[in-house]
Inverse folding.
């Protein structure tokens, strides 16, 4: 191949199985606990809100799990996704390092969320479910789920975090176009929402609150189940197709990453691109570093505590062993709505605890600067979430240059920012602060947050 | 190959030359005329506003023209573009026909406009130009040109048609992100704009007016040139990469189109996908139909007159032999801003006159209905412009089913609608009329429009 810019795979080169890191982790994660009994939850505890096939995947230790044909059929409309060599970005930086990015924004939903929306809708449909409820932050997950549910003939109700609902009206309309109903959260539809609104009628909402609302509705009806867009093991499993493709593509490029980077909300896009490379570390003695970039205003991996905590705001989920800021933590209203989550998924938390995952927190202005440099050089307008990964990649390149070495850097460009353009507007107007809250408010909210200890 | 959903080409399968239909047309188009002398314009007449290389391409009769390496390098970041078999749309329709679409919305600009923006910026840069002025309707062309100019180190000033400027604020912000300056047109910056505003301070603007403004600025400074996003021969030349790729991809799919469809503004995306297939009609006896779909409120191909007319509102361009509604025609404020142009490019006009191109006019509500059916089945949210092509494809499939036959239909999905989502909002609110003006107003504006006769 002459000068490689992007590496494409054909449909028949697409992996037919998801990779399950559970099979290769040195220390398996602690079990989720039933908060009432303090004992590990069983499948029956979860079957109220999830279909059985996803519960099986949640606890599976099989290394590879087959992707159903119906899911592969829809994957084929947008997968394999391209891997790019960021030649123009490298030039703009003047770096000696090689920067690659896997672009997950080219599908209908505009982000990696489609990778798990499709199997989740599929398994629910197969088990006779009629309606799904879910949460969404910036709306990428909600969009992904809307199309998937419509495709498989399921109704969908989306609780969209209020601050994002107001910041990104286009996302709501996109979900409507795909036939979904969208409600700003906290809402008056649920007890969870009403209790938040009583305490703070102007609550901006959070993913934790929206999850509580969606779960509450799902628990009321046997034909309604709940779907989660990140955090859980089965979600991360579905996202590993990203890293498996990237592995083939890097080989085609004749390269191998020294570092793999993803932005970090609950962990799904980060895990999706990095876990297949982590397996190579575990099994084949590779030394690739995994770096998660989280918002400074929602710093669970860098400032949170590893403990059992709820996955949602009102305590409806099992207790999960994870890095958390406390399930009551209300993150600052940054534009990267998808990163406004108080905890880290169980798998990443265990791996972080065991020293296999690095983490770094960044303020949003630096990330927007990175996003604009990226847009002007590579063309693609990144989602605010993905801008954290870009900023992380720039750090790695700059550090390598200072050290006089050349690194191979791979990051996940998890989505496009076409529906987040008002954030860019604020930036150009000089009105995009590092965070909306003051540092004192942020510190106070960390102190106030309820990290339970068991 | 098992079940084909999309057909990808690798970078080294990308065509290295553009195809020039001028070489194969039975009747060459009439020459553009200097309005002052009534004589054919020469290169020197055009050199005030265009670089010489583009002027050469404008009049070239060479069949194939080499794509420069610097252009190929940037093309590689998004080309070859995918060709899809619309299996889910076929299923939703229950049609026996096969529907394929070439998707040009996957690049940075979100439309086919990048294909000509890049070479236009490149040739200008090579000839020492420092600044470019241009017009844009819905903003796809402006976005495409913004990134291209920034890449090659050129300043860009965009006159954006006012109605689109107000309808689609995201597009302006995207152009700003790519470093361009954007002014709503008609503006007070130019004599052309001021004279329109004097007559109608609330003028919604039109592509014709915006072209006048951009040309007026370019004509004032030797280091400033003007770039046009459609209509002209060199623009259409650059877009033929679409059809050339589609030809290879259809062959890989083991199919050949009975009909090729594109939406129609000035003609560039329609010509880009269809001209390579038309060559097969001319040279190899194929019988593919070419169908252009235009808005009922801007129906130059179906209701316009074939005559010499200006390409812009205030009469700054040479007189072009084309189907036109008159250069003073102000189209209704439909959401497909890119189709609001009074004339058809010279090449398409001649081919239409000679019976090689069919045309059909459609109202916008039918096109939005087609777009929503498409989004729900195929996932991609189409640009309002592209929705006209979809509606045209649905017509063909339905007609074939009525006739009991199966056709192979190929259309150009010229762009995505992520920045046009307010149009979808209006549709869902029940507020998207077929046209904003009344039928009487439209007929009156057709009567009032100034089609000159020479």
């Amino acid at each position: 191949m002459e000068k490689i810019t992007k590496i494409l795979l054909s449909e028949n080169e697409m992996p037919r199985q998801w990779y399950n890191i559970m099979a290769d982790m040195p220390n398996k994660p602690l079990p989720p606990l039933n908060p009432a009994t303090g004992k590990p939850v069983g499948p029956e505890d979860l079957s109220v809100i999830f279909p059985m096939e996803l519960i099986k995947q949640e606890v599976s230790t099989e290394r590879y799990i087959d992707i159903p044909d119906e899911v592969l059929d829809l994957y084929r409309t947008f997968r394999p996704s391209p891997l790019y060599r960021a030649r123009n970005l490298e030039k703009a930086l003047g770096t000696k390092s090689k920067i690659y990015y896997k672009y997950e924004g080219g599908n209908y939903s505009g982000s990696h969320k489609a990778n798990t929306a499709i199997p989740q809708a599929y398994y629910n449909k197969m088990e006779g479910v009629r309606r799904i409820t879910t949460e969404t932050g910036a709306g990428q997950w909600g969009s992904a789920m809307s199309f998937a549910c419509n495709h498989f003939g399921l109704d969908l109700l989306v609780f969209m975090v209020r601050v994002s609902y107001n910041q990104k009206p286009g996302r709501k309309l996109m979900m409507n176009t795909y036939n979904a109903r969208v409600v700003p959260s906290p809402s008056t539809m649920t007890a969870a929402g009403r209790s938040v609104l009583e305490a703070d009628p102007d609550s901006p909402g959070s993913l934790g609150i929206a999850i509580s609302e969606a779960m509450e509705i799902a628990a009321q009806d046997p034909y309604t189940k709940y779907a989660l867009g990140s955090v859980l093991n089965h979600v991360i499993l579905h996202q590993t197709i990203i890293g498996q493709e990237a592995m083939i593509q890097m080989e085609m490029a004749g390269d191998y990453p020294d570092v793999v980077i993803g932005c970090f909300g609950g962990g799904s896009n980060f895990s999706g691109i990095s876990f297949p490379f982590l397996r190579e570390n575990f099994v084949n003695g590779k030394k690739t570093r995994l770096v998660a970039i989280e918002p400074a205003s929602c710093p669970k991996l860098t400032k949170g505590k590893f403990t059992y905590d709820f996955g949602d705001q009102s305590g409806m989920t099992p207790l999960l062993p994870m890095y958390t800021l406390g399930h009551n933590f209300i993150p600052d209203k940054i534009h990267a709505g998808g990163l406004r989550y108080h905890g880290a998924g169980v798998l990443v938390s265990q791996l972080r605890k065991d020293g296999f995952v690095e983490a770094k927190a960044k303020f949003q202005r630096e990330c927007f600067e990175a996003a604009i440099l990226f847009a002007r050089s590579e063309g693609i307008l990144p989602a605010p979430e993905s801008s954290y990964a870009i900023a992380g990649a720039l750090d790695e390149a700059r550090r390598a240059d200072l050290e006089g070495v050349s690194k191979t850097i791979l990051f996940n460009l998890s989505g496009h920012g076409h529906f987040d353009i008002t954030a860019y507007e604020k930036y150009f107007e000089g009105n995009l602060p590092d965070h909306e809250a003051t540092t004192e408010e942020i510190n106070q909210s960390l102190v106030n947050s309820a990290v339970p200890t068991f």
User: Anything to note?
Assistant: Chain A has a mean pLDDT of 93. The longest strand of chain A covers residues 155-161. Residues 282 and 329 of chain A are 34 Å apart (CA to CA). Chain A touches chain B through 48 residues (CB under 8 Å).
